Amino acid sequence: MSKWFDKRYHTLNYDLKTKFDKKVIKLSIDGGFTCPNRDGKISTSGCIFCSERGSGEYAGDKNLSIKDQLKQQIDLLKDKWSDAKYIAYFQNFTNTYANLEELKSKYEQALEFEDVVGISIGTRADCLEDDIIEYLKDLSKRTYLTLEIGLQTIHDKSAKFLRRGYDYSYFLKILKKLNDANINIVLHLIIGIPNETKEDMIETIDTVSKLNIDGVKLHLMHIIKNTDLQKIYEKEKFKTFEQEEYISFICDLIEKLNPNITIHRLTGDGSKETLIEPWWSLNKRAVLNGIDKELKLRDSYQGINYK
CA 201, CA 203: separation in Å to the nearest integer? Predict the structure, then answer.
């Protein structure tokens, strides 16, 4: 398969190199936001899997300005990638959960930085008011904009277990508004939610394959210290994926995924300091290599079983 360079699935690297004709690197920054699942609007406990840093263990230091966070990371990378371009990734917590003027200030700071060619914004479907969507519509005309939404699953029972805070029908209403505004959408999906069957997970992939979205991130359900998921795991010892089982099942999902949808991520990897299980997920390279090997052994590729 040579459709996506050397991969058998539609990678973000392929998309960015095709669009910008050079290396483009995402820089994770902390915009200092919180979340309605943290500040009491919905809950004070957060989603059950969310870490103390809002699933942003590798983001910059929120005590630094947006520009200083970007400069710090670029300085570390410039020797290896002297001519690279960058995407500012607002990662921690909910990065549209503020008034419009605050959002504009932070996003525009990132765009002013030399060699930043785009912005990626991690958020929730229930934190996208009409005035924010209108601004993002304008922003998408000026830069490469991607909105990353933590959907996790299409199944409301699972969403309630995760404490997501809104149902699937609400997400679809917001997606329609974003589609009408021509904003690029990436969905975060969790593979291995306790009590979901493999058939449930396949149904999520089959369903999102038919939506008007640009990309997905497939996250292995991994258990982080000091989360409510850790407490549930210690009490129930629910089953998590073994490495080879996960690799095989991810390949099944890749085969079912619409080939026009870009895959931004295929696993999840907490830090050594915070990860509880599964420990094998720390070796991200081995997982990705295993997926490549399995697809090659199957002589398979993304979308071969997409209907």
Answer: 5
Query: Could you tell me how many residues make up the chain?
Result: 307
Q: How many CA atoms lie within 13 A of 146 on its CB side?
A: 24
SS (H, E, C) 3-63: CECCECCCEHHHHHHHHHCCCEEEEEECCCCCCCCCCCCCCCCCCCCCCCCCCCCCCCCCC
Residue 46 has pLDDT above 90, yes or no: no
Name, in order, each residue with C-beta under 8 angstroms of 228's C-beta and a sequence gap of 6 or more: 45, 46, 48, 163
Q: What are phi and psi of 146, to 5 degrees?
A: -130, 130
Encoded tokens for 245: 């089982």
**Whether residue 41 has pLDDT greater than 90:** no
Share of the chain above pLDDT 70, in %: 96
Name the DSSP letter for residue 145: E
Tell me, letter by letter, the H, E, C secondary structure of 256-284: HCCCCCEEEECCCCCCCCCEEECHHHHCH
Give pLDDT, residue 37.
84
User: Position 207: which residue type?
Assistant: T
Q: How far apart are CA 51 and CA 46, in angstroms?
A: 9
pLDDT category of residue 63 using cuts at 50, 70 and 90: confident
Residues 6+ apart with CB under 8 A from 77: 25, 84
pLDDT of residue 78: 87
What is this structure's pTM? Answer: 0.95
